[in-house]
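Exercise (ungraded).
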Amino acid sequence: MRLFENASYNIVGNLKIGYIISGVLLTISVISLLTRGVETGIDFQGGTEFVVETSEPLTVGAVRSTLADALGTEPEVKEYGSANELLIRSTVGGDVTELSALVVGALESANPNVTLSLQKTDSFAPRFADDLKRGALYAVLGSLFVIFIYILARFGSIIPTRIEDLAFPLGAVAALAHDVTITLGLFSLLQGVVPFSLQIDQAIIAAFLTIVGYSLNDTVIIFDRIREYANIFKTDAYATVVNKSINQTLSRTVVTSLTTFIVVAVLFIAGGPVLRGFAFALIIGVVIGTYSSVFVASPVVVALKSRNEQ
Amino acid sequence: MQGNGFKIFSVLAFILLSGYYLFPTLQNNLYQNKLEELAGADSTEYLEANYEAIEDAKIKALNLGLDLQGGMHVMLEVGVDNLMRELATNRDETFTTALGAAQDRVEAGDNGNFVDIFYDELQNVDPEVRLSRYYRNVGETLSRRSENDEVLPVLREEANEAVIRAVSIIRQRVDRFGVSEPSIQKQGESRVAVELPGVDDPQRVRDLLRGTARLEFRLMADPQELQTSLEEIYNYYEEQTAQANANAASDTTQVADAGTADADTTETLDLGFGDAADPADTGSTDVAEAAVNPLQGLVRPGQGTIFAQVAESDTAMVRSLVMAQAVRSLLPQGIQLMYSADAVGETEQGFEVFNLLGVRSRAELTGDVLTDARIAFDPTTNAPGVSLSMNNEGAQKWSRITGANVGKQVAVVLDNIVYSDPVIRSKISGGQTRIDGVSRQEAQDIVTVLKSGALPAPVNIIEERTVGPSLGAKSIQAGTWSVIVGFLLVVVFMVFYYRTAGLIADVALLLNVVFIFGILAAFGATLTLPGIAGIVLTIGMAVDANVIIFDRIREEMSTGKTLKASIQGGYDKALSAILDANITTFLTGVILYSFGVGPIQGFAVTLMAGIVSSLFTAIVVTRLFFDYLVAEKRQSVAFG
């Protein structure tokens, strides 16, 4: 079977479509991030999270008000995978022992004929959470920096003298920033709309970095082809070379995206509630990452490389 | 196949190595299944007969993370700030201000060495500060005349020692706790990570890890004085409440459920502690409810040396009420309040109730005089307790204290909790005494804590993750299904798209999964749920290299080259793209591993292992197949 073989779409000539799509998505993302913001997990803000299994389903609202009375502030309560499991998240600090006794005690006294068992407890002191937040930020910035340097060394020259030398690394990093911003924006927009948690925690940061790695994978394959064709078709305009390269690698881009999409979709469906947000980030990342390799990274290269063709 | 000898050898070697490292994991699974099949007595017998082999397999098997097998992960931080406070011989205004400022700086995220931060703050308060003023008694070498640059290294060394000692003490305690394969690691300047697989009693672990094992014998408050001060405190809050109600009444615009109108103590009432609301109260909601004394319903007044009785759900509340600056001064001089270790009853909601006792702030005798601690049962009641033996100095002091206070109570305090407060009936000489009123397990834990020594500085739990075994089992199931389903879908797709070549890529993919597990087992890495996610993702991305190569081969063939030349050209031309793409992803993995903690590291490890093994399988293994089929057998291979 063959897909997109001998494709010859005029992609570089139709970049407007890409600008519109990216522009709209970025605008929505930035607006959502500024107005709604993102919810951070307890590992980034400190607090305690319990997963409680109940012998009979309890209504989330009732549990929330019971615990609000007991804890003094309203905790977040959600179903966790099934109706018999609840996720309770509270930013109340203090001793975990006291807190868990308080939560279980309050729920048991409110629902005398339901037996409860604590499935999972996570607790983070606020100061440790700050450390984790810093670590995550460094990880994201650090990876962008390292990638920039690596691409610069492989596709430009290690000591850039002209702006053209920066074309590939700038294109790659622009695509990555685009992907992370839009994924983050969608997380901000859909939090509370979809029936699973989209809080930004350590696992999601790992997912973001994976998206960075994946998107880069696609981008580098196209860049590699551009580098090769730029040497073969020296007389062509740079835009034509880039367009050829994108078309030539299109079938591979689509096939790999498809297999990766299949596995992350499986992970999303079958991976259990713990991995749902994580898998969701990867699904968005695979789609956006594939798109941005073609419509964000390559145009930047064209723009910077064809400056002195006139 | 000439020239491929080394490649064939290395592929076979990797397969054998993976098999070797994964064999114990298989064995372990077989043993565990066998043990489950066999019923009670048979199972024990089988376990005894093969104990060595079973344990050996368990130790060498692929480690499952706590999120998969259930257990507890605790991150402890040794309180160097408290150590600085305790080492100081005198603490003046300058000292406390600087310590507070240093603590604030750490709160704000300064991760430097606390000793240096503290010194820096001391100099901010008083540029002429002399450390020897506070620390002349630390270590052997310091005196009143020591210069700051002599004192600083000693303090740094002390802080470092404290952490190292804490790690070894925690190790001892954990070892006696009786968990299989606990892991204890020092992290950074002053942190210790403890992992306890299969633990389902987090409460006990917390107490055991945090206990500083500070044993003290203290005299108790004078009952008369204590009860008077209780009344005074109660009256103080009465006045406050009356005042607040008067304010509320005059402020007619106040809405019933307004938030913190003025942050006084009455606000704490909205927290719903204490008695259930009186049905009569639920009349009108448009008038601000009259506030009641916050202590009412939180405490039952005590008697004698018992200040009050408090339910465990209210302890935090009571602490904030009794610790308020205005109230502290109402307590008798030199007296502080401590909870009893034992519950004295239960509330209607099932919360345990504890005594809040008045004890003297000064300890008469401390645990450093102990020579031994043992579990001992009371000969008459057979109740468990801890029997303590003291050295000569302790014995003399103890006999003097008990002799001078016959008829009064003495509190046996461990880490600021009163374990027992017996009345001294007669002078106790000989340096033997007991801690009573504990369960057998508590007695065991107290002995463990006392015997492994006192922690040099208090430790705080700054992160804790507990996963129950059933949730772990569910995660394993979900993870396994994801791997299998993802794998099968990709396999089917590859055959559908690339025909024979796809089948070859699938063989490489299967080897790839085996190698990933092999690498994990060989490096003693731990498989976590995010790690499994990493493997699933790798399966999806691993075929990428083959897709690139096969597409290149198709391109080459379309230019009219022979199959053999096309395969040659395809592999050669695809290599640079594959390497570039994978090295960048690998770098991301390295960064994730170095900045991440816990779950993220697990994910990063599988990602990196996946990249290494998929590069090997996609480039070397598939190439061998094609060489064999095309060059040796002169067969044609369909590339779809």
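Further reading is listed at the end of the chapter. For now, observe: Residues 69 and 472 of chain B are 5 Å apart (CA to CA). Chain B has 19 helices and 17 strands.
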